[in-house]
Amino acid sequence: MPQSDLFGLEMLWKLESANLADKADAMMLFVHWFLVRNGFRNVGVGDDKTLNNAVDQSELLPEGWNGNNKSYALRYIMNNELYILHGTLSNDTMIVNLLQAQSLQVSNAAFNLDKTITSFNDSNLTNVVVSIDDQITRLQTELIKPLCDGGSKSSSTQTLISSSPSPAQVNVVPAGGPRRIQVLRPSGLLLPFGGGGGVGRGDLNPLGGVVGGGGGGGMLMDPMNMGPGRVDPFLPGARIDPMGPFPPRVQRPNPNPDHLPPPGYDDMFM
Fold first, then answer.
1. Is the pLDDT of residue 3 over 70?
2. What is the largest CA-CA distance in the chain?
3. In whole angstroms, what is the distance from residue 72 CA to residue 88 CA?
4. How far apart are CA 136 and CA 235, in angstroms?
5. Among 8, 124, 194, 260, which one is least packed by beta carbons within 10 Å?
6. Alpha helix locations (H) across the chain?
7. What phi and psi values does residue 25 have, to the nearest 5 degrees?
């Protein structure tokens, strides 16, 4: 015997039994009864999302509710909010959707008619719905709870930015010519390579005098091209000669390695 409170189901069943044409009608009648038992009131058929408070609210099914036994659309109101119940028959499965018109949140449940409804013309309700307690539980958890208990609230994606400072902040500031790259070192920052002191210590720090606390970098090509005496790097990580009327970065002894070799430079017989 079912343990759920089925108050009102028998009366509704007797009122609509002559209008039931198949198991799909019986399934939608059962869903309607469950909504009414949970405080919903019917305000007509259709899927119009506008709420008219002048429409009469009823516990009964409206006239013409099963005019199309392949697709159902019923309108309900609860707590002054409009809900639309859709029932769609696909093969032997009844797919039930409950839409909250204002927030457009949707809940759904699917029932195999042959495994849920035994008959649509049986006078004994305990034989009409298979395991009626289980079906009531499904309707509660899958159809009503997501909308009425806040289980299916829409949420906006938020990007959280940590307020803790990063070890090094690179600030690119447009200037009159090339971009100026400023590397800011927060106070009290412990660098992993340390600074100064010890033979070969500078070789461990690729940034050298930029963020290493003094001393030259250990890389032949500074990854940020910011060695001593250089203020405005043009291409980070590349060694270039300055363009324009700027003094050279390093005075190289002749012959300049950037110059072309003399003729026959690689001839072993010369």
1. no
2. 117
3. 6
4. 70
5. 260
6. 9-16, 23-37, 113-116, 125-128, 132-138, 145-148
7. -60, -40
Question: How sure is the predictor about 113, in pLDDT bands with cuts at 50, 70 and 90?
Answer: very high
* Token pair in block for residue 224: 């940020």
Could you tell me if 238 and 226 are in contact, meaning their C-beta atoms sit under 8 angstroms apart?
A: no
Q: Whole-angstrom Cα distance, residue 233 to residue 182?
A: 10
- What percentage of the chain exceeds 70 in pLDDT? 58
Beta bridge partners of 61: none
Q: End-to-end CA distance of the chain, in Å?
A: 112
Neighbour-count burial for 218-254, b at 16+ CB within 10 Å, e otherwise = beeebebbbbeeeeebeeeeeeeeeeeeeeeeeeeee
Question: Beta-carbon neighbour count of residue 209 at 10 Å?
Answer: 19
Cα separation of 219 and 55, whole Å? 81
Least confident of 71-80, 166-175, 196-205, 231-240: 166-175
Torsion sign over Cα 52, 53, 56, 58:
positive
117 has a pLDDT exceeding 70: yes
| Angle made by CA atoms 12, 106, 37, in degrees to the nearest 5 | 25
Average pLDDT value over all residues in the chain: 74
Pairing of strands 169-173, 180-184: antiparallel
Nearest to 58 by CA among 8, 99, 117: 8
